[in-house]
Specification:
By secondary structure, the chain is α/β, with parallel strands linked by helices. It is 29% helix and 22% strand. It has nine helices and 16 strands. A hairpin with a 4-residue loop joins strand 8 (152-157) and strand 9. The longest helix is centred in the last third of the chain and has 28 residues, at 370-397. It comes from Alectoria fallacina.
Length: 408
């Protein structure tokens, strides 16, 4: 009797969670295909530096194995210290924890209901890596199985599998399963959950930027939160992670992430896909009155790498339940979009990859009940993460959403 070839696991999107899941499948020899709407990995700006939690590092290590994880670990930056140091951007001096969020009583009440932010994750260090570098590392070995310029807009179940449907109406080969890892605008998530998975626009906006490490020498090593309460339109903050060893090398760059209360940062024509000079000019204008020790971060920024971003969040009460489909599920931002507060989103996404990859490895591929098991476990940790992320964002920069808020 002839052996029937195992059909591939289909993955929509080539972001962090999708690529780490692919690495898990690659390691266990389970066939897969990835469909990505962009034309290449360098098609768009790759975003800011990610801070990796203990849970995130554990998830990545479980997927990569000891040898590959050591290579990944070596690419990560390690910063000393265990918490944020806050700086008043006008005076350039450190400010107290109670003063840094504008209204001490309100901030204190919000924060008292949330777990403390723990930055150090291994060896007493704060571990970070740029999103672009992390994505390139996870991509290694997966290139032959990626179909670029393939935008998945829906799926069709068959009698023995599932097909991805693309924007031009064509369909993929039949797969055993389809995994939606295609971010906050995921059409897979909308179809699967019948609209129960929602991503809300918090109204807050931000800008990512980067500059040569020499521009950061006025700050020195540490994780810094720069807070500007003087803007008449609302509070502005910048977070940056400055690791030692590179501050004298102008060929190395550090990144920073700027965010603000709703209404402060406005992209031209509300187009948040713009990158480069429009974003750079707004960042420079907003920081024009900042202290000289901070100005180089913006005056010396690499303008071409500046990018706007929209701060979104899934339902703050947690990940909703939907009718399980055995052959389709979602991971990462498609399942649980989070604000940047607390640096929780990417760490939760890689936990999805590790969990789903482990379940597939144990089953040798698709089996009935696998997606139900994954979703049940995912909702526990991801639901808590969404609530924490939203609570921190509400306290830090005044977002406020409910079930009636605008969705993306």
């Amino acid at each position: 009797m002839p052996i029937v070839a195992q059909k591939p696991i289909l993955i929509s999107g080539a972001g962090l969670s999708s690529l780490l899941l692919a690495r898990s499948l690659l390691r266990t020899s389970i066939p897969f295909l990835i469909f990505e709407r962009d034309s290449s990995i360098s098609f768009r700006a790759q975003g800011y530096r990610l801070r990796l939690s203990s849970e995130g590092l554990d998830a990545i290590e479980s997927v990569l194995g000891p040898d590959e994880f050591q290579k990944f670990w070596d690419k990560c930056g390690k910063t000393g210290g265990s918490g944020f140091a806050a700086i008043d951007v006008i005076t350039g001096s450190k400010i107290s924890a109670t003063a840094k969020d504008g209204d001490p009583d309100k901030a204190g009440n919000e924060r008292s209901q949330l777990p403390p932010e723990t930055l150090a994750s291994r060896d007493g260090k704060i571990v970070g890596i740029s999103r672009g570098d992390m994505r390139k590392f996870f991509l290694s070995g997966c290139q032959p199985f990626i179909h670029w310029s393939h935008h998945v807009t829906s799926y069709e179940l068959t009698s023995s599998g599932v097909c991805a449907v693309f924007a031009d109406g064509s369909k993929s080969a039949e797969g055993e399963m389809l995994i939606g890892g295609d971010g906050i605008y995921s059409k897979i998530a909308t179809q699967l959950s019948q609209g129960k998975l929602k991503v809300y626009d918090t109204g807050a906006r931000g800008i990512h930027g980067q500059a040569p490490t020499t521009a950061f020498k006025g700050l020195g090593e540490g994780v810094w939160r720069l807070t500007d309460n003087s803007n008449p339109n609302g509070k502005i903050f910048v977070i940056t992670n400055i690791r030692p060893g590179d501050m004298d090398d102008p060929n190395v760059q550090f990144g920073w992430t700027m965010g603000a209360q709703p209404g402060v940062i406005k992209a031209p024509n509300d187009d948040h896909s713009l990158i480069g000079i429009p974003a750079a000019e707004i960042a420079k204008a907003l920081t024009a009155s900042w202290h000289p020790r901070l100005k180089p971060l913006f005056e010396e920024m690499t303008e071409s790498e500046a990018a706007f971003w929209k701060i979104t969040c899934s339902t703050p009460s947690g990940v909703p339940e939907w009718r399980n489909e055995p052959r389709v599920t979602v991971i990462g931002d498609a399942a649980h979009s989070m604000t940047p507060a607390g640096g929780i989103g990417a760490n939760t996404a890689v936990r999805d990859s590790a969990l789903l990859g482990r379940l597939l490895a144990e089953a040798g591929g698709y089996k009935i009940g696998l997606t139900a098991t994954y979703e049940r476990e995912m909702r526990v940790y991801a639901g808590e993460a969404v609530k924490t992320s939203y609570g921190l964002a509400k306290a830090q920069f005044g977002v406020d959403i409910d079930e009636n808020s605008e969705t993306v």
